[in-house]
């Protein structure tokens, strides 16, 4: 991975304001905002202080926003830039931002000042920061990656907008009742949204339904039956080492005609509010990451709404800046449009519609602009996650887009035919339309549209990108050699090290200087510290302090006492069969049984920590959560076990909880079946914070192992080829049970009701799945996993050796900054130069 972040950082004068300037201004802003808030509230509280602090910080950020926009509007004349810089528009249905205040204060350098101001009001900064609800407008990895990217956009000075939806309710809140997940709405805006800047002047119409007419000149016109309006709300994302910002622009739907007055006058109040209700529904709630059919129409509307509003905004800005549509994607003031998975894959169809129907361009010209502007990232190989829409639904909602897709398809298939004559099967496989030959209905394939309309398509880790072109997109890779490439994910070191782990940051600063925040590759210079006993001791002291903090949180949240000196073994992520939390639990059961059988052995005390949400309709994932709770109850209350083993499940996993858990982890569980986890980004956050990884040869684990040295990771299990081979030969999970008495005891105890108070039925579906299908090869990998866990114990029993490896993990993570990732996107996808 060779990168040149320094080339990406935009040159151009923008000195940092001196801290004393800003301190003075935040003092004023805070005093004003606090006064206003206090006038409305009955008494001074942490919530009042939070809103005032956020409002004050926002005011300073708004100044930086205006400055940044002014600079970007003349980006074709940026001094020192070798090529014109394209403004990047990152379209994503999800942005998992977490809290904003800590980040804003760090970026503005105002933490000490605000801390002082709050103290004067009798408030502690820590308490105030804790009050801020997470902005959880995303499901998991894909949404958090988008948030890390915004941070890097700002830091690298890239002219950029993130575009998303302003969901009223984000990712559901998870509670646990009797060991089961219960979902509650996430009313994250109930205390107001002090961060957002409402752009009342920025409104665009978005239509649905209706029909297409043709005028005398042959020009086609879409007459939508329903008209909504998109209004912009901006969230400003600051750089940490300059005054540049990026913008997350989130669309809010309102009805173009909120009251149907005719219906109202006739006394039909429900009818009168119809449009308003439809608009509200659009913004109502984030879709969970499952593919249930219910409510799919709304999802398609959300996607179309995001795409249309964003592209109208891009075009309006370009017309303002450049005066004409020429060079939308290529000339001096050019623009790039990036699709975060297929969720915004309608974008090319909508861009074509806008260029053809609203701006009068011809097909060839419009198509050229579209292809040069658009690029697409795939985030999962799971075939069930490939989005398709029924033609009938599509036609009913987006008739003009469907016409355009048919035309794109006809031209594409003609090209394929010319290149591969006589291969009708290929045509059927790659068509943008799934003809539903096996009795199914006809459907639009969104990934096909995204690929055909993009100049670049990438996966998110080396293995994933390779498998992508060998499996799900093999045909397209044959048609468009050179279009596909890899850009390995990264995470922002500002949030995931500087903010989440201040103590480790201070230690690193003292040893290698502060530059790692901007250039993570500098971590490499930490390597010699691994063999410095004094440094290792300080490193371990930081880890222990973080573990103490997590132990306190565990006691507060679920009332379980854990020993901070035990090995903290952590798996936190969405609950999914392919991620194999169940394998983790099988190991806990095996260890529990082994301790009982051999109580006097020198067991290395372990605390296994799991957190994560299951999609509400995902029955097996919910059963895994329940099993974790059942096993935890039995293990944690067994007097024979004591401190040798604890299992804790922390409810309501999210960004802020991750920020506490990750710095406190000794061991990071990254145990997906090889070939299933596209990249993983949690894996990177853990290693960056000095946890060792136990992991399969999957996703970005592979590149991490290569960067830090495989001897510094606990790698186990079948690799991708072996997984494929076993499956091809006819996989029989029962065989593994016959070969391992240990595995048999584990499965039998769960199936027999040992953890479910004798209720043998509770886990029947789960154990039968393991014994009969086991799609993710838990049974096949069990022995290797348990063996590797014994190696983990052995190393943890030698604290010096463990610490040395932990330091080498940190030292090896320099490549995994989202700054490096974004620099690669700029180089290979988003710069005009990359278009060749
Ligand atoms: C699918 C759907 C289906 C329809 C409803 C809403 C919804 C939301 C999300 C998804 C798929 C999410 C795919 C995803 O999050 N992939 C993860 O992307 C990470 C960033 O690239 C990567 O590190 C993870 O390995 C990958 O699982």
UniProtKB/TrEMBL annotation:
InterPro entries in alphabetical order: Glycg_phsphrylas, Glyco_trans_35, Pyridoxal_P_attach_site
Domain of life, per lineage: Bacteria
Cofactor: pyridoxal 5'-phosphate
Keywords, comma-separated and alphabetical: Carbohydrate metabolism, Glycosyltransferase, Pyridoxal phosphate, Transferase
Main EC class the enzyme belongs to: transferase
Cited PANTHER family: GLYCOGEN PHOSPHORYLASE (PTHR11468), GLYCOGEN PHOSPHORYLASE, LIVER FORM (PTHR11468:SF3)
Record's protein name: Alpha-1,4 glucan phosphorylase
Protein's organism: Roseateles oligotrophus
């Amino acid at each position: 991975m060779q990168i040149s972040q320094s080339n990406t950082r935009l040159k151009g004068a923008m000195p940092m304001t001196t801290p004393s300037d800003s301190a003075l201004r935040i003092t004023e802003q805070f005093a004003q905002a606090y006064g206003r808030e206090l006038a409305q509230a009955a008494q001074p509280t942490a919530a009042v202080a939070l809103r005032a602090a956020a409002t004050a910080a926002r005011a300073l950020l708004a100044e930086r926003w205006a400055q940044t926009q002014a600079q970007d509007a003349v980006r074709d004349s940026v001094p020192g830039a070798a090529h014109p810089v394209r403004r990047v528009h990152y379209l994503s249905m999800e942005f998992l931002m977490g809290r904003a205040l800590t980040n804003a204060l760090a970026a503005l350098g105002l933490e000490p000042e605000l801390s002082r101001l709050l103290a004067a009001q009798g408030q502690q900064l820590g308490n105030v920061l804790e009050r801020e609800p997470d902005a959880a407008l995303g499901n998991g990895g894909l949404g958090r990656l988008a948030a890390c990217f915004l941070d890097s956009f700002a830091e690298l000075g890239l002219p950029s907008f993130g575009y998303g939806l302003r969901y009223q309710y984000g990712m559901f809140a998870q509670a646990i009742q009797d060991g089961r997940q219960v979902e509650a709405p996430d009313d994250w805006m109930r205390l107001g949204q002090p961060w957002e800047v409402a752009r009342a002047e920025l409104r665009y119409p978005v239509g649905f339904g209706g029909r297409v007419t043709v005028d005398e000149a042959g020009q086609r016109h879409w007459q939508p039956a329903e008209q909504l309006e998109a209004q912009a709300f901006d969230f400003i994302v600051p750089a940490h080492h300059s005054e540049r910002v990026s913008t997350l622009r989130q669309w809010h739907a309102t009805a173009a005609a909120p009251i149907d007055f005719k219906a109202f006058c006739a006394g039909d109040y429900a009818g009168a509010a119809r449009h308003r209700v439809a608009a509200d529904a659009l913004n109502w709630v984030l879709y969970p990451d499952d593919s249930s059919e219910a409510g799919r129409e709304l999802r398609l509307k959300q996607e179309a709404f995001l795409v249309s509003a964003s592209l109208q905004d891009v075009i309006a800005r370009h017309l303002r800046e450049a005066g004409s549509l020429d060079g939308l994607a290529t000339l001096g003031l050019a623009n790039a449009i990036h699709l975060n998975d297929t969720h915004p894959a309608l974008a090319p169809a909508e861009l074509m519609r806008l260029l053809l129907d609203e701006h009068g361009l011809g097909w060839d010209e419009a198509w050229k602009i579209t292809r040069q502007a658009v690029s697409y990232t795939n985030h999962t190989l799971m075939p069930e996650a490939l989005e398709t829409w029924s033609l009938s639904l599509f036609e009913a909602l987006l008739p003009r887009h469907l016409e355009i897709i048919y035309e794109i398809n006809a031209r594409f298939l003609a090209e394929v035919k010319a290149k591969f004559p006589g291969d009708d099967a290929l045509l059927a496989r790659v068509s943008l339309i799934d003809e539903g030959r096996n009795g199914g209905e006809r459907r639009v394939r969104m990934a096909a549209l995204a690929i055909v309309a993009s100049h670049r398509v990438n996966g998110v880790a080396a293995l994933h990108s390779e498998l992508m072109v060998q499996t799900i997109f093999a045909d397209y890779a044959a048609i468009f050699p050179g279009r596909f490439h890899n850009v390995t994910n990264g995470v922002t070191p500002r949030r995931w090290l500087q903010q989440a782990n201040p103590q480790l940051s201070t230690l690193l600063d003292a040893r290698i200087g502060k530059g790692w925040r901007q250039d993570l590759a500098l971590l490499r210079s930490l390597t010699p510290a691994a063999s410095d006993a004094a440094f290792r001791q300080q490193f371990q002291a930081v880890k222990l302090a973080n573990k103490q903090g997590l132990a306190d949180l565990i006691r507060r949240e679920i009332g379980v006492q854990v020993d901070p000196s035990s090995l903290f073994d952590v798996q936190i992520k969405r609950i999914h069969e392919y991620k194999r939390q169940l394998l983790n639990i099988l190991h806990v059961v095996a260890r529990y049984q082994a301790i009982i059988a051999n109580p006097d052995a020198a067991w290395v005390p372990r605390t296994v920590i799991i957190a994560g949400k299951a999609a509400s309709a995902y029955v097996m994932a919910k059963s895994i959560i329940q099993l974790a709770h059942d096993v935890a109850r039995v293990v944690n209350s067994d007097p024979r076990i004591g401190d040798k083993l604890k299992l804790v499940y922390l409810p309501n996993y999210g960004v802020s909880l991750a920020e506490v858990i990750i710095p406190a982890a000794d061991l990071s569980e990254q145990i997906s079946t090889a070939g299933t986890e596209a990249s993983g980004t949690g894996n990177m956050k853990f290693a960056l914070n000095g946890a060792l990884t136990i992991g399969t040869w999957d996703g970005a684990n592979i590149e991490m192992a290569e960067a830090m040295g495989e001897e510094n990771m606990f790698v186990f299990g079948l690799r991708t080829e072996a997984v494929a081979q076993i499956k091809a030969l006819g996989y029989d999970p029962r065989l593994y049970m016959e070969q391992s008495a240990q595995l048999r005891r584990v499965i039998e105890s769960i199936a027999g009701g040992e953890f479910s108070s004798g209720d043998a039925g509770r886990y029947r579906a789960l154990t039968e799945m393991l014994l009969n299908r086991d799609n993710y090869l838990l049974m096949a990998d069990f022995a290797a996993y348990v063996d590797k866990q014994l190696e983990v114990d052995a190393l943890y029993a030698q604290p010096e050796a463990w610490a040395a490896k932990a330091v080498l993990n940190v030292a090896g993570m320099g490549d995994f900054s989202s700054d490096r990732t974004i620099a690669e996107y700029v180089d290979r996808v988003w710069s005009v130069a990359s278009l060749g």
